[in-house]
Each structure stands twice: as C-alpha cells, then as structure tokens.
Amino acid sequence: MKRYNIRIAGVGGQGVVTSAHILGNAMSAAGKYATLVPFFGSEKRMAPVEAYVRVSDQPIYEVGEVVYPNVIMIYHPQVITHGKSYTMPFYTGLKEGGMVIINSDADIIPDEDRKVLEELDARIFYIPATQIAREIAGTELATNMAMIGLFFGITKLVSLEHIEKALIERFLGGTFVASGGTTALDSAIEKKFKKKQELLAKNMEVIKYTIRMAEENAWCEEEEEKIAT
Amino acid sequence: MVEQKVVDPDYLILEAPRERKFITGSQAFAEAIKRANVDIAIAYPITPQSETMHLVGDLWAQGYVKDYYRAEEEYGAMSAIAGAVRGGARAFSATSGPGLLRGLEAIVSWPGHRIPAVLGVMTRVVNAPLSIQPDNVEIAYLLHSGLIVLHAENQQDVFDFTLAGFPISEKVDVYLPVVVATEGFFVTHAKGYVELPPEDMKLPPRDPYKAPVPPTDCEIPPARIQRDAPVQKSNFMSYLIHAVWQQEVWSANERARKWIKHYLGGLVEVVNPKAEVFIVASGCAAAQGREAQRYAEMEGLNVGLVKVKSIRPFPAQELREILKDAKAIIVPEHNIVGWLCKEVKAVIPNGERVVEGPRVYGGMTLPVELIMDEIYRVLGIKKEKKTLV
Fold first, then answer.
1. Among residues B107, B86, B277, which one has the least CA distance to residue B181?
2. Under a CB-based contact definition with an 8 Å cutoff, are residues A34 and A28 in contact?
3. Shortest distance, CA B153 to any CA of chain A (angstroms)
4. Which of A68, A75, B171, B384 has the fewest CB atoms inside 10 Å of its own CB, making it the most exposed?
5. Angle at Cα B359 formed by Cα B141 and Cα B338, nearest 5°?
6. What are the residue ranges spanned by the domains of chain A?
7. Which residues of A are less than 8 Å from B288 in CB distance?
C-alpha cells in the first residue's frame, strides 16, 4: 500500500487549499484515492493556512486534519522563520522516514530542528518554488503548482495527463464549490492571465519543470517504497 | 433540470445502476434530495450546514424541490417542518450544533406528533468555548425523544442514509422523523467517492393518506392532541394518554429496525467478526476505526470493527452477540461525554471490557494513532516512538 498523509502549511493567498484540491483531483483522475480537509480558520492574505491531503493507491477511510503526517509541504519560508503556522514547530507529528518539501532558495532550518529531523530520518527537499513560478509563469501565484509538481515528481503517483485533467477541472470546470474569498482570488488570477487557457498552460509548464527537477536530482521514489503505518 | 421518472424506492435505493463521483458531503446530501421528490425544504443557515442548504436551494431554483424558504431561525424552521408534513408534504431540513439545540424543542416533539421527515445534522461544537468544529456531543440530545438517528461515516453514507431516510420515515408502521447525522467539515466539506444512482429517477411522491393516522383531521390524534391537549383534561387522563402515546412512539422506533436492515443492510457493519479486540464506533470515528483495523491487520493483530449505523433504534442484540467473546472493546468518540460508550456498556455483560476512549474534544480530528495506542495497550504491546506531538 502506497500511502502519503500530507500536511500543507502556507500563508493566505498562496493557493494552499486550491492545490490540495488539485492533488486530490489528480489522484482521482488516475483512478487512485485521495481525501482532503482544508483548515477553516479566518481566511485572509498572509495569515497561516493549513490543508491536509491523504493520497493512496488503496481506499482511504480516515478523515480530519493530518496530525501525524509523513509528508510536510511548506509553501512559505515564514512558516518556519516566523512561525506562521497553526502547527508549531512545523515538523510536529512527522513520522519516521517522512519527507519535508520546503519552498525556499536557502537553507532555513534552525540547527536544533535539523537535529530532530535527522533523528526522524526525514528527507528534506528545498525548492525555490516562488522563483520558479515567477520565471516560468510570470507570477508567484503559481507557487503552488511548483510544489505540486515536485511532490508528484518525487512520488510518481500520477502522470502528467492526470495532473492536467485536475487543473482543467479546477480552473475550467463548473463543479468546484469555492468560498467567497477564493472566488475573489480566482478573478484576480484570471485578470492577470487574461485567459483561463493561458493560465492552464503556464501552470502546466511550471509543473513539468518541477517534475523534471525531481528526476534530474534523482529524488524520485522507487515503486511501493513507502508504507505508512 | 433533468426530466425525472418516478421509480420504486427499492429499485432506486437497492437495484439501480450506480456511477462513482468524487463529491463533498454537502453535495452528497443534495444529490439525495435531488432524487427524493421533496416538496419543501426549510432551514436557517449555520456553519457547517449552510453549504448543504445552499445546494438544496439551488435544487429548488432548478425545479427538483417544489418549495424552499429560509425561516426566521431554527425554532421557526423546525416548527414549519412539522406544519408542512402535517399538511401532507415531504420535507427536509438540516442544521448544526447551536442551531440544532435552538430548534430542539420543536424537533423532540416531532415523533409524538408523528411527523415523517428527514433532518440532516452536521455536527458542530455546542459547549463553550465557542467553535465551529465537528464535536458531536449534540447527538446525545437526540437519543431520548423517539427520533430515528442514523450516524453517517462518510459521503456515501450521507447519500444512502438520506435517500433511504424518506421511505423509512414514511412507512406506516414507523411514521417517525429520521435524523441523518454526520460530522461537519470532515464529511460535509471534504470530498469522497459516492456511488450515485441515475439523476433521472426519483422516489414516488409522499402519499399522506398512507399513514397510521389521517393527516389533516383535527378531531383525531395526532392533530387532536395538539389542538386539544390532554393537559386540559384531568391529570390522570393526561398521564394515560401520554403513556400510551409515547409507548407507541418507541414501539414504532423499534419497528424501524426491519426497514433499516432492508434499505441499509443492517444497524451495524462488522469487519473481522472473529476478532479478539473490537473497535466499536459510529460516524467519523468509525472511519478512523476502520483505518486502525486495517493497520492492525497489516501488523498481524486480530482486531475487528463494529460500525454502529443506527443509534436509534440501538443495535443492542447485535452488539451482545458480536462482542460476546471480545477481550477488549475500544470506543473512540468525537465528544467528551462518551455517549456511545455509555450506550455500549449498557447493553453488554462484563462492561469492564470497554475502553472508554480515545476521545477528542472541541471537534478535533481523531488520529488513528490514538486508537492504535489503545490496541497496543490492551494487547500488552510496547512501542517506542520518536515522533514529537
């Protein structure tokens, strides 16, 4: 059984909840399984946001926030450096042999935290996701896409076509139920890209880039390597 | 709106081909209402129920639900449901936590007034300090009034229990309201796979004359006892009428068993019936228990799960039989009082076998790891943990 319990921590406006939906939809498109729970606090720009996703090749029964993750994705360095997080410290509950993906162009983990992570035998991946988003999509709003791409690049859970299907469902489909705040943000994104089609293409480019990044760095996992308990 | 044809409830619920969708619990409620031929939906918004009733409002705009309005508050909403049902309509409402308690005076009078309806309860903290998270202590307030109370584990249960709730509720030998409770957010706002029958089919309309009592005649109970309350007679008439009336309500509640078995496959679901240790749980706690059972099995431990689908009627006999050889019984819950634990202890011998927990409070998630800790403890297994919590 391949199973990842993911906690995503970021700040308001980064598309944390959106990317949780896309992760789930991509798994669904691949005929696999996913469940997700967004954290419902007050939604505002730059305030802490957490979302939780469980993905697996087997049915998932468990619900609720992921308290004991084996994957932690940090969308904003301030989650670590400023403690902008509902979960402090950021690695709380991380299981042995888990992974941490951090959006930062520099090593930002304090020494005492690094010691804990080493004891837990955690794999840590740094990725300048915001920089990649800015360079390839021309906006840092695609930061979440860079993070998703790297996760799927490492885990090989789904293929590109499944990710694209998930993006189409999220950005072009009419089935998504968004909160008022998210709808407002969507229209801001749309204005920036003029056309939704263009948004989709740019997002896919970012995702392809970070998947390649995982491959080039040999970060990809073997099939059936991870078994969560 | 899709043109819908009326089909037999047994066909729609048990036999029709189903298609798998990835939807939220709120959408699952709405998909059930879409196929339930509902005459009227009345509610007052409260988080986390609002999304469901918003979607039901959309169904009204599309023509699937014949009438819909937002009441002045929950007391008004639940009283209006009683009025609409008394008038012959099929009605749906939903509420959460504080809203449920605000409407409770009207709701607990429904069984005695023989009001067949379906009420969605998306749990939310009711005790202070205030929170919108899915603590489920409110279900305890629903257990002593004759309501049928089903507790949904996931989005699929939400759909199945809600759709089946209407025929169960309207059976002449039942004729009681059905509550479909589920945890707010964990189920209502999260997506899961739901097998749905075709949307071009719906239940037959409610037939108000197919009732144990005529629906609108004010000279005959139940309308008579509302218009002309026994309290206006002698005290002893009042006691007598109350006794026979409530005994009949609870007998009707018991008679719902066969219909719950018919439409939902039983009051309980058992995984690994020969287990040494059982997890007994309802709602989302059953989902967490199901995961724990799977992990225990992967570790070679003989652990089973009993999911309690129906809290009222309560599966007393089933539990006595399934748990007769259990060494330990773990009852994980999403509330501080442990209402399910008390129910289980009350119906089985050797109650000291029951582990009172794990419990989480204030609507926190119930980590599977907490259930695993109890499994290890009752089996005498020691585990070393490095994880910081």
1. B107
2. yes
3. 9
4. B384
5. 35
6. 3-228
7. 61-64
Residues in B lying within 8 Å of A, measured between beta carbons: 22, 24, 26-27, 51, 132, 154, 183, 185-187, 189-193, 284, 287-288, 290-291, 294-295, 298-299, 364-369, 386-389
Nearest to B183 by CA among B363, B359, B370: B363
Neighbours of B141 (CB within 10 A): 15
What is B268-379's CATH number, 2.60.40.2470, 3.40.30.10, 3.40.1190.20, 3.40.50.920?
Answer: 3.40.50.920
The class (CATH top level) of A3-228 is alpha beta
Is A21 exposed, middle or buried (CB count within 10 Å of its CB: 0-12, 13-18, 19+)?
buried
Region(s) of chain B under CATH 3.40.50.920: 268-379
Report the candidate in A53, A138, A139, A61 with the shortest Cα–Cα distance to residue A101.
A53
- Tallying the residues shown for chain A, one arrives at 229
- List CB contacts (< 8 A) between A67 and chain B: 365, 367, 369, 389
Query: pTM for this one?
Result: 0.88
Instruction: Compute the radius of gyration of chain B from its Cα atoms.
Output: 21
Phi, psi angles (nearest 5°) of residue B199: -80, -5
What gap in Å lies between CA B63 and CA B310, rounded to an integer? 32
ipTM of the complex in this document: 0.82
Closest CA to A2 of A67, A54, A39: A54
Residue B14's DSSP bridge partners are: none
Query: Chain B partners of A34 at a C-beta cutoff of 8 Å?
Result: 191
Which of A90, A87, A19, A91 is closest to A55 using CA atoms? Answer: A19
Residue range A205-224: mean pLDDT, rounded: 89
Sort out which chain B residues have CB atoms less than 8 A from A33's CB and list them: 193
Smallest Cα distance from B380 to chain A, Å: 19
Tell me whether residues B24 and A177 touch, CB distance under 8 A: yes
The C-alpha angle with vertex B168 and arms to B10 and B241, in degrees rounded to 5, equals 150
Position of tokens 């926030």? A65
Range(s) for CATH 3.40.50.970 in chain B?
5-202
Q: Is A119 within 8 Å of B386 when comparing Cβ atoms?
A: yes
Integer Cα distance of B249 and B265 in angstroms: 23
Task: Please give the pLDDT value at position A181.
Answer: 59
Give the chain B residue whose CA is nearest to the CA of A117: B387
What's the pLDDT tens digit per position in B38-73? 999 999 999 999 999 999 999 999 999 999 999 999
The predicted structure's pLDDT at residue A176 = 47
- A68 vs B contacts (CB less than 8 Å): 367, 369, 387, 389
Is the distance from CB of B133 to CB of B184 less than 8 angstroms? yes
Query: Which of A35, A52, A62, A91 to probe the B interface (max B CBs under 10 A)?
Result: A62
CA distance A148 to chain B (A): 19
Whether B238 shows a pLDDT value over 60: the answer reads yes
Return the CATH number of the domain spanning residue range B5-202.
3.40.50.970
Cα pseudo-dihedral B119, B120, B124, B127, rounded to 10: 10
Which is nearest to A77 in space by CA: A105, A115, A111, A39?
Answer: A105
Residues in chain B, total: 389
CA distances from A139 to A144, B135, B311 (A): 11, 40, 52
Contact (CB, 8 A) for B124 and B97: yes
